[in-house]
């Protein structure tokens, strides 16, 4: 998953771009995350998507500690998961996160999870988020956090143009 | 939420139906289900939907013990949640489950969760399921479990006709 | 589990006491609480002990909402569990809580969990707690919450005298 | 934490020992592991102790996959936790595991958890385990798994002699 950071003001036709690369978030399946069917309980994937989202924001330079220090909350509005293949205790899953859409208010993220053991796709999912202040009032990123607004808009734009997924 | 059980072979125009009523599944929010934002962590709703689904199947006469004794598994293929209002420690949520669609293979359930305190809608969601035997091979309900097949088909049909939600 | 509430100022030798009875806290094992061994994962019992503790405090008239409104926190200092028999999905466990010791600072609770199906003992456990204000400073119950102090002291005394467990 | 592996049959007075070093198990606190008090919920430490135990067994060469392939289960008989200092979202905890006692039947492990941020002790704990076959019958390690028996006995002996904790 690559993100090409445009050198704004330069000639894009010459393809001079810096590449911003996101590392997938990887973690092992814990024993207590399995259920009596012998496989990972489906609710845990929602938690791993959160782990990956937090890691993704940190890679962007907008970790939760920074968001929190700025009084910026980002609650989950919706979650969507399509389970493709089960995982088991001690499997390692790798999760890639991308910004699917952002136009200033709602952040729409997508997730792709694979099993490191065999490269099989485990799950695809999406989450939607808004931005609130600590009094739970909506925050306009463009006005109050233009830097974060710009990076999210750009990631969404790049994805639309097919540039941030290899 | 009512389900009208048709007296098959009788004159439906006379509206002679038995009513099958499903009780919503209610439960309180536990302390350990809250997170540092002070509200219920969003992943727990997925678990409560499972609790409600299991209770719904029991009300149908197809509890997990019966499914299990018959060697019938029903894994989750997808989950979808739209969070409308947060809940807090000691709130009580009530969950209604309905069969949205079933045509013999995939079972498509829908959920509506309200906060008992104020009647506000907390969440709407859906899950999709298939039926497998203990070797994880697909099971054709119509052939192997015609009784369960019929009840699910009828619930789906009634919902389509607007009869199983008051 | 009975608690005899002394009629203070009356003749105890005539055994005139009001009985305060605590209902055990009962709940079913959820599917997501099992693990790949097919039984309840041991970590969940710690959570159920918390559920039972909160219920016990409510029966005492000191529910978490009241404690919270008063700015009184009661964190866990230690947990101890002896597992005697495993439980399974859909089993119902019943938990009795008693005050083992309280002399004004540390609250020492004990738990006894049985399986409703067969009455077998599932677990015995203890927890220790202190009382803090919202700035995490120790609170002297005797001075600031004499009513709660008295009820906890009395429960501990009655237990020592063998009166609050039938 | 060091474990000196004796060169059996050699002159110990010359201190010729191989050193077996165990790496502590480290992991970050997840958002969903916090509760409304703003700190890690106490039940999660029990799960982290399991994560550390599994990692410890892997370092010993007796990972769960190997135990499982041999049909060897090791359920938890008791858990004991003393909480010393709370942890928060994004803190990293490091857990050291040691064999406190083993004489062929019950395995008695101890845990020490520190906060990587400041080195403060977060928790000390113990767990007790037995060994069962897949029919839940007790297994005599000495007879059936002498290699595992010996390593556990030696670790317990070394700890008693103060050699496996730096």
Quaternary organisation: homotetramer
Kindly report the spatial arrangement of strands forming the biggest sheet of chain A: 3-5-6-7-4
Number of helices of chain A: 4
In CATH, what is the class of chain A? Alpha Beta
- Mean pLDDT level of chain A: 88
Task: Provide the domain count of chain A.
Answer: 1
The end-to-end span of chain A amounts to: 5 Å
Unreliable parts of chain A: 1-19
Number of strands of chain A: 7
Order of helices and strands of chain A: EEEHHEEEEHH
Task: Give the largest chain-chain interface (CB within 8 Å).
Answer: A-B, 18 and 18 residues
Helix content estimate of chain A? 25-40%
Q: Any idea what the shape of chain A is?
A: globular
Task: Considering the chains and any ligands shown, give keywords for the structure.
Thiol Ester Dehydrase, Chain A; five-stranded antiparallel sheet; disordered N terminus; 25% helix; alpha+beta; globular; two-stranded antiparallel ribbon; 166 residues; 7 strands; homotetramer
């Amino acid at each position: 998953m690559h993100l090409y950071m445009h050198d704004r003001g330069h000639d894009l036709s010459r393809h001079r771009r810096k590449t911003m690369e996101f590392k997938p978030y990887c973690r092992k399946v814990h024993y207590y995350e399995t259920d009596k069917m012998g496989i990972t309980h489906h609710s845990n994937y929602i938690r791993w998507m959160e782990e990956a989202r937090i890691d993704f924001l940190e890679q962007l330079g907008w970790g939760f500690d920074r968001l929190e220090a700025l009084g910026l909350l980002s609650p989950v509005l919706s979650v969507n998961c399509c389970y493709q293949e089960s995982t088991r205790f001690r499997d390692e899953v790798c999760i890639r996160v991308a910004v699917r859409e952002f136009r200033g208010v709602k952040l729409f993220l997508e997730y792709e999870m694979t099993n490191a053991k065999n490269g099989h796709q485990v799950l695809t999912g999406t989450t939607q988020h808004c931005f609130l202040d600590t009094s739970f009032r909506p925050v306009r990123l463009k006005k109050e956090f233009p830097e974060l607004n710009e990076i999210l808009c750009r990631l969404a734009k790049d994805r639309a143009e097919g540039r941030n997924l290899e």
